[in-house]
Specification:
It comes from Allochromatium vinosum (strain ATCC 17899 / DSM 180 / NBRC 103801 / NCIMB 10441 / D). InterPro entries: Cyt_trans-like, Pantoate_ligase, Pantoate_ligase_C, Rossmann-like_a/b/a_fold. Its main location: cytoplasm. This protein is an alpha/beta fold. The chain has ten helices and ten strands. The protein has two domains: about 180 residues, HUPs (Rossmann fold), CATH 3.40.50; about 90 residues, Pantoate-beta-alanine ligase, C-terminal domain (Pantoate--beta-alanine Ligase, Chain: A,domain 2). It has a seven-stranded mixed beta sheet, sandwiched between helices. The protein has a three-stranded antiparallel beta sheet with strand order 8-9-10, with helices on one face. Helix 6 packs across helix 7 and helix 9 packs antiparallel against helix 10. The termini are far apart. It binds pantoate. The site of pantoate has 10 residues, from strand 3 and helix 6.
Length: about 290
């Protein structure tokens, strides 16, 4: 059975790399620029803002939906990760995406994931979320490198909510000289400032009421730093505030925005990153702070 299907709004869906490449080659031959939005599906307004940004920067937008097993650790939510292909396809078509790539695990890891070559970005992969999720960023870097090689876009778009992921990908692209521009897109938020995330769906109504505290605490911590509070004290106050709000903090850390090194007294461009558990969900968020 051919794996090419046309959803409403002329969205093309392909499952095979050969089909993806043939279509992208045809667009390139016509002189068109290609933008790429990799996702794991269960799309929300944040993903759609990446597609819109892609449209603004290129003639064609390719999106992928692939729940990448290599970036999930043992006991994480790989099996439970929400899969909502029909709704995703409709939203992508309505937002002006041209092609949706939905490879199988076999298409991406034909010899199995355990013996597949891996891409490691040392230095920033084992800290923060990487410390709590060993191997996660190797899984992300490997699949993103592979998807970029498959699509060969001019520009690739990633959400700033996953700030550490964005830096890992920037480093990967720079170190391996991949010919693609990486663009970070601001975090999409609910009306109460909770960062949009596919994992917010795990929250019970009561937990959903508590979740905005994560970003509130980041904002308060940013104000404290701007008011001259020392980094360590601001971090500890932030951790205490998260716990007091009913979240179980994993980390709250003030880092140099450029490379996530611990913030020193000379550093002005900072980012506060935090992760916290709430029921079944592990929420992450961040806030930039410029001390100049
Ligand atoms: O951010 C995500 O959804 C994933 O980590 C990505 C970049 C699609 C790689 O699987």
């Amino acid at each position: 059975m051919p794996s090419t299907a046309h959803a409403p709004s002329s969205l093309i869906q392909v499952e095979r790399v050969a089909e993806l490449r043939a279509q992208v080659r045809a667009w390139r031959a016509a002189g068109e620029r290609i933008a790429f939005v990799p996702t794991m599906g269960n799309l929300h307004a944040g993903h759609l803002s990446l597609v819109r940004e892609g449209r603004a920067r290129a003639d064609r937008v390719v999106a992928s939906i692939f729940v990448n097993p290599l970036q999930f650790g043992p006991g994480e939510d790989l099996d439970a990760y929400p899969r909502t292909l029909e709704a995703d396809r409709r939203q992508l078509g309505e937002t002006g995406c041209d092609l949706l790539f939905t490879p199988s695990v076999r298409e991406i890891y034909p010899r199995g994931q355990d013996t597949h070559a891996r891409v490691e970005v040392p230095g920033i992969s084992d800290i923060l979320c990487g410390a709590s999720r060993p191997g996660h960023f190797v899984g992300v870097a490997t699949v993103v490198c592979k998807l970029l090689n498959m699509v060969q876009p001019d520009v690739a778009l990633f959400g700033e909510k996953d700030f550490q992921q964005l830096l890992v990908i920037r480093r990967l692209v720079e170190d391996l000289a991949l010919p693609v521009e990486v663009v970070g897109v601001p975090t999409a938020r609910e009306s109460d400032d909770l960062a949009m995330s596919s994992r917010n769906g795990y929250l019970t109504p009561e937990e959903r009421g508590l979740a905005p505290a994560l970003y509130q605490v980041l904002k308060t911590t940013a104000e404290a730093l701007r008011a001259g509070e020392p980094v360590e004290r601001a971090e500890q106050t932030g951790l205490n505030a998260l716990a007091a709000a009913g979240l179980r903090p994993d980390y709250l850390s003030v880092r140099r925005a450029e490379d996530l090194a611990p913030a020193g007294p000379e550093d002005r461009a900072l980012v506060i990153l935090a992760a916290a558990y709430l029921g079944r969900a592990r929420l992450i968020d961040n806030r930039r702070v410029n001390l100049d």
